[in-house]
Design brief:
homotetramer, EC 3.5.1.2 (chains A, B, C, D), Glutaminase (chains A, B, C, D), Beta-lactamase, 11% strand, alpha+beta, 301 residues, glutaminase activity (chains A, B, C, D), five-stranded antiparallel β-sheet
């Protein structure tokens, strides 16, 4: 399959969707992003890389970081699963309701509460944001990937909800390090800026069932498959069922407008377009992935 | 792969799990089932059939019927999706809470409320239980498949919760036919008795992306894949995330102790063992499917 | 205090509120009511009766009936309290959420689910609607009080939500008689038409701590006080706190626009005006009771 | 009525209840309290004071402080009501669920979230704990009333849940001052130690409809009555309906085992016994108030 030509076609097909939806506006640094951007990249398991549109333009990865921190935490063992569940939440990503009904154990690692637990876990092995940065730079081969300081400062100033989530879990003894430390590392992770090519290259180990670009193994076969399973059931906020239905691939979205998706055994895909739907997923991004699986026939179902 | 030998090995491996858990006891006809039964069958897309243990013993399919009625309703078009969602519920299968918060639209077709809507929709085209029976007999080639009259009578006598769900949806105008009619058809669907071989043969059209055993098409490629997607995210009550994580296949369970799972492009699997875990899924059944995907490497992730 | 003059003054004061809000429109028979009606009556414990405006015009008592059926059920003993609680619900009057979380035991006897239980309890001693009618006729001295057949028929045709509530409780074994029977009696109770004078005279036994107009005792001192307590905490749907705050009297409202309130030791008050606020309480009715307690100083606080 | 003799009789009557229930144990300083303590005091509107048992022994007032801070906040005007509701919560005192559903506006000023808002409001006029201390010393005439430093330190070390509540409200812009400041003032209020006599004398202005012991007015007639109304509907956590039913007086409890209740126009009562029921109210305290209203006939109903 000529993926380069395919990406061109997809970019044409979804053009009417680009600019639709609303750019995240809870912090000024995100609100300023030009809504009509669109980029898409595919990193194949054999190392080939393809892209279209703004695929070399960095954007804020936000919650896409949660896939990588989960994988990094699992590379140290299964311990994190005693502190966070694996079920879809059925509620918005920053809801406290279930957390209360379920004694401070977040439903899954991709809602904010769960990602805070994963960060707390990863922090046993050094600053979680630094660990993540190092991994992303190594996988992508791009040493320039960094934290957007303006986004990080802005996030830190709008973190009361996450702070509430963290203290709430602390009240159930499900937070080991001091909340301000965990929150700081969490905010810096979310504020990393990357382009589609680098995200796709950093995520392709999940299509390779755990094997990194340098041939070493980050995760065992089962663990890697299971990260994909959690992405499928929990990766797109409370629209995971809809995403599985339309796209049929494990995927994780971020409010920066990015989505990363995995075709097991084949490739990782990253798409970026800042306009979000009501549930926080990129409108043009979902449409592009929908076209991608329709045209390739590569859904997992 | 020698699936016959594989099934033998799985039966050995899961022997310690057989008899664990609790047999469904809300009606006497189910409570009487011998807990130490175990059967498993695989129907391949090319027609080959394999089995082990009690794979020729009929059991009550219960909620496994919901996969078939959904597929049959979708064979008439997409209309049902205006009346039922596609998101995991995050709540027990017969909960009313979300139904109230979401104006009488059930979260998905595999919780009881959603299946009542699907039955109501299918009933436009004739008695839904009869339609289902006809389909199951044709696909399995077993004309003896029937409704267990004792189970049906018993279910009808313990249907107050489902009756409440149906009237509740009626109060939101999401029930078209009279509640007693819909409930009667729903109860009879759940009371069908089948063996593992027949279930696997009846479900293999989902592995064949919509094509029935006689080569005709029940569903288009996309629609069939999408039924699989809904099974993955919503098929095992509030344990869908755990099932995706452990087994990695679309699956649908019933409180009779059966689970049907799909390996797209390859086969349908049906396993049966009556002991249920706290969430209503067969203990030995989940274990057997876990072994199956581990040994074959056939998870979708 | 010259209550007749006082009522005239209140009618003047609240004139701007009359016609505000929305008339209940879920059934045609209620939707047709002229919104600009206003009546108010006071029945003193010594038998004196005062009124203003449309105080002799019958209206649909709806949920005000719940106070009387509770008192009648309690006249047979405390048994009903094993099947219904005494706490404010904090949720709309016909919500199923709490019922599910609390195993089919309604929070209090003034939400619909609780009133269905009270009806079921009262039905042990004969048809509950007939028992209620007999009591209301005796207390008011008005043998013409009856059930509005059009309202009753209309309610019966819009009872799916209440039917769902009743079957839901039945699934928890908290419904003793057949649901259709209980529902029929419940609907007829709510469909009784009375005027303000008759309601006030029928309720004054609660101001007399249980003693009826003929000097016999319906309830003991404690039981009567406790009905007042439940009215205060639960009598005005999810606005009970606001009503206690503004009016400071035990009161029970109905979607027909009536409110009955008790001044312990002094009198019962009934006010009627069909325009309802967002929580289902009469706008002009609450305003009139607010004026009444302000002018008389007769709040219980 | 000979209140001194009455209190002796009540102490005898409730003796079997003393020591029942569980002493609050979330902080060591409270867990150490001797469970078999019992004291009760009545402060009449004319200044007479009566007591029995341990009525001169200081204890931790905890949530009873919320009544006084509400009254002090209202003495500056009605502004606080734009930030907190007046409805019973129907949920435990430190729940976050409703807060989320209702956009960060707490249901009432007596759940923790609401009291944090009241503290934030009162803090406009100086340190809220100091303001409260000054008021309590003036009303009781006891200059020795102070903050228990050990309790305060202990509370501050177990405040993650309250910290979560405060940051959660901050995320809805319903917290004006920095969370750490508000929390510090809140913790010190709750850690005040007082005896029954001093609490009763400090609360009797609510029985005098707003007039303090020195004849000056803290609150207008309406405002004072309304504080009583909020106490009745919301003062005893999620047992307010039960307390109204059994006791029939406005009351506010604390997990230190104290309860303060108001008989409008007559007196304030404070009872203390550390054993708590499942909902956090003193077992012997509720029993004593129940006896008190039964023997005096002074319920408000």
């Amino acid at each position: 399959m000529d993926l380069a030509a395919l990406l061109d076609r997809i970019a044409d097909d979804v053009a009417p969707e680009i600019g639709r939806g609303s750019v995240a506006d809870y912090i000024p640094a995100l609100a300023r992003v030009e809504p009509r951007r669109f980029g898409m990249a595919v990193a194949e398991v054999d190392g080939r890389l393809h892209g279209v549109g703004d695929w070399r333009t960095p954007f804020s990865i936000q919650s896409m970081s949660k896939v990588f921190t989960l994988a990094l935490a699992l590379s140290h063992g299964d311990g994190v699963w005693t502190r966070v569940g694996r079920e879809p939440s059925g509620n918005p990503f920053n809801s406290l309701v279930q957390l209360e009904n379920e004694d401070g154990i977040p439903r899954n690692p991709f809602i904010n509460a769960g990602a805070l637990v994963v960060t707390d876990e990863l922090a046993h092995h050094g600053d979680a944001a630094e660990t993540l940065l190092r991994f992303l730079r190594e996988e992508s081969g791009n040493a320039d990937i960094g934290i957007d300081a303006e986004v990080a400062a802005s996030e830190a100033g709008h973190a009361d909800r996450n702070r509430a989530l963290a203290y709430f879990m602390a009240s159930y003894r499900n937070m080991r390090r001091p909340v301000p430390d965990v929150l700081d590392q969490y905010v810096r992770q979310c504020s990393i800026a990357m382009n589609c090519a680098d995200v796709a290259r950093s995520a392709v180990f999940l299509a390779r069932h755990g094997v990194r670009n340098d041939g070493t193994r980050l995760l065992g076969l089962s663990a890697a498959k299971r990260v994909n399973a959690v992405m499928l059931t929990c990766g797109t906020y409370d629209a995971a069922g809809e995403f599985a239905y339309r796209v049929g691939l494990p995927g994780k979205s971020g409010v920066g407008g990015g989505i990363v998706a995995i075709v097991p055994g084949r490739c990782a895909v990253c798409v970026w377009s800042p306009g979000l739907d009501a549930r926080g997923n990129s409108v043009a991004g979902v449409a592009a992935l929908d076209r991608f699986t329709t045209l390739t026939g590569w859904s997992i179902f």
